[in-house]
Prior knowledge:
By secondary structure, the chain is an alpha+beta fold. Helices cover 30% and strands 21% of the residues. The chain is built from five helices and ten strands, in the order ββαβββαβαβαβββα. The chain has helices at 25-46, 111-126, 143-153, 169-174, 205-216; strands spanning 5-10, 15-19, 82-85, 90-92, 100-106, 132-138, 162-164, 179-180, 182-186, 192-197. It has a seven-stranded mixed beta sheet, with helices on one face. α1 (25-46) runs parallel beside α5 (205-216). The longest helix is centred in the N-terminal third of the chain and has 22 residues, at 25-46. The relative contact order is 0.20. InterPro entries: AhpC/TSA, Thioredoxin-like_sf, Thioredoxin_domain, Thioredoxin_ResA/DsbE_sf.
Amino acid sequence: MAASRAKVCQMDGDSSMSQSQNSPQWIKYSLISLALLALGVGFAMKLKQSPPASKTEAPSAPATAESIDAGSLEGKTAPEFKLKRFDGQEVNLANYRGKIVFLNFWATWCDPCKEEMPSMQRLYQKMQGKPFEILAVSLDQGGKLAVDAFMKKNKEAFTFPILNDSEQNTSKKLYHTTGVPETFIIGGDGKVVKHVIGAYEWDSPQILDYFEGLLKKLPPAGNV
């Protein structure tokens, strides 16, 4: 099968390509991990052993730029942030605990970003009514003017929240992004499950299966 490439734009506005497989490897490995986890849980339930002594662990503190090495966010608590939508409404990441969060960093000048956004919208529509949210964070230095111009050309095309990070304090300082698009999948416990660099078809069958697997792992509402 011929290889495809995941497109990425560097922060200077140039478009580059990072190699990937037609079926993204991160999806293959993630689905395998979910399957192994399910097998492990089933095996553990069959073991007749007395339960181990309970341990009291201190809750993990919110991650900050100082406490995270670049490129090591997977498995860590996602850095908390507050950003404003372009309608002025403030969005606080902490308010999405208990949901799967699709955090996407993008820019209007990035062609790969614009190429993947329709599939993000289709994913968003397919996940309606489920504990799932997309937060698309714009890195445009032009801020509202740049995004407004883009949205006028795409009227009613995208209904997920679009946030403003024109100073790139969240993208670069907290999430250590080096280009766009970059996507962070955050679990219901607030930890980064997967960091994906490059544009993808986010409503492909494999990726939909991946998100459904994450949703099944969420605790019942109110038990987060």
